[in-house]
Design goal:
β16 and β17 form a beta hairpin. It contains 4 helices and 20 strands. A 3-stranded mixed beta sheet has the order 3-6-7. It has a domain of 168 residues. Helices cover 22% and strands 17% of the residues. The chain is α+β, with helices and mostly antiparallel strands.
Length: 352
């Protein structure tokens, strides 16, 4: 009796082997993705520590520390004069929720009652971010108080002429009224006629041109971090530098040439365009980033503090499964509407 040896796999056996290989590959990829995701918070905290160490060493050397600048997408400069501009980014009052004026010169004053007829132009530290051009078009910052809408580095002034180079930071700081008076003179304009630029206009030196903003930010970080600081932090993955792209968002950010895809629904790191599509943006120049590649906030609260929005890519209010923010900017930190979720639970914040 002859024994017949099988010399080849049957089709079914081959399919089983292929399925097993696919399953094993999927498990390996899932494990790699999990490890990568677990590393990102560690990378973020390491980045914060590295930057704080660099800043501390530099401060000890030069006898002073650096500060932070307004987030480019939450600045005070009026850009309504630019073609396609829509004024300053949208903020709402913490109390009452009224929309702060997005056009006209911004004012900083201790009490709204001091500037009758111009209260809507006053910017307050606790104003809450509502959007870049329209409400809710930048979930990353939605609901964040103005005092925290800041980044490490330098701001760009209104430039000359202001209509061509609107800049990021520009507001007129007014002193309290004289004793015995309840309001300030100059209503309703409160402009340079009575409050001249050298004493009252807050606007850093520089013009927001095609490349100047990148140059100012680079020089500011070089001064803060010291020689080779940017290069060293870049090697650690703490800093991303952009020098080219299509200018968007009132000249304060750009679309990276390799990231031109748009999406129907929101995803972290995206802003909503006027056509309703969502797109990835990049702040101009070198910027401190977290483990997910998104910009970290930097503000002063008994010392410099850094904060990452974490995995969900929002600081205050996550849009929820429907991808639509249902909450109001001024209440998002305490009262969430619809299917919105608390975006602060995975934030990573350094100690001062």
């Amino acid at each position: 009796m002859k024994t017949v040896l099988r010399s080849a796999f049957t089709a079914i056996e081959m399919l089983v082997v292929i399925v097993i290989i696919i399953l094993l590959g999927s498990l390996v990829m899932a494990g790699a993705n999990l490890l990568s995701e677990q590393r990102k918070p560690v990378m973020t905290r390491n980045a914060m520590q590295a930057v704080l160490s660099a800043l501390g060493g530099r401060a000890a050397l030069i006898g002073g520390n650096t500060g932070s600048a307004e987030h480019p997408l939450a600045g005070t400069a009026d850009v309504s004069v630019v073609v396609g501009g829509s004024g300053r980014p949208r903020f709402r009052r913490k109390t009452g929720g009224s929309l702060v004026n997005v056009t006209g010169e911004a004012l900083e004053v201790g009490n709204l009652a001091w500037v009758p007829g111009a209260g809507g132009r006053v910017v307050m530290p606790d104003d809450c971010f509502d959007g870049i051009v329209t409400a809710q078009d930048l979930p990353l910052l939605f609901g964040v108080e103005r005092r925290r809408c800041r980044v490490l580095g330098g701001a760009v002034g209104i430039g000359t002429p202001a209509g061509t180079f609107p800049g990021i930071t520009a507001y007129r700081r007014l002193d309290p009224p004289r004793v015995g008076t309840a309001t300030l003179p100059g209503t309703p304009n409160f402009d340079r006629a009575l409050y001249p630029d050298p004493q009252h206009l807050v606007s850093p030196t520089g013009e927001d041109g095609t490349t100047t903003q990148e140059t100012i930010q680079t020089r500011s970080l070089e001064t803060a971090l010291g020689p080779g600081g940017i290069e060293e932090l870049s090697r650690l993955g703490c800093i991303r530098t952009t020098t080219a792209g299509t200018l968007i968002l009132q000249r304060r950010a750009l679309i990276d040439p390799v990231e031109t895809a748009t999406f129907a629904a929101w995803s972290p790191g995206c802003y909503q365009r006027t056509d309703g599509r969502w797109q990835v943006y990049r702040l101009r120049g070198p910027i401190l980033i977290d483990g997910w590649g998104r910009e970290m906030l930097c503000w002063n609260e008994n010392g410099l503090r850094f904060s990452s929005a974490g995995k969900d890519g929002v600081f205050v209010c996550a849009p929820g499964p429907d991808g639509i923010i249902s909450s109001a900017a001024q209440t998002a930190a305490t009262v969430l509407a619809g299917d919105d979720r608390d975006g602060s639970v995975d934030n990573l914040t350094s100690q001062p």
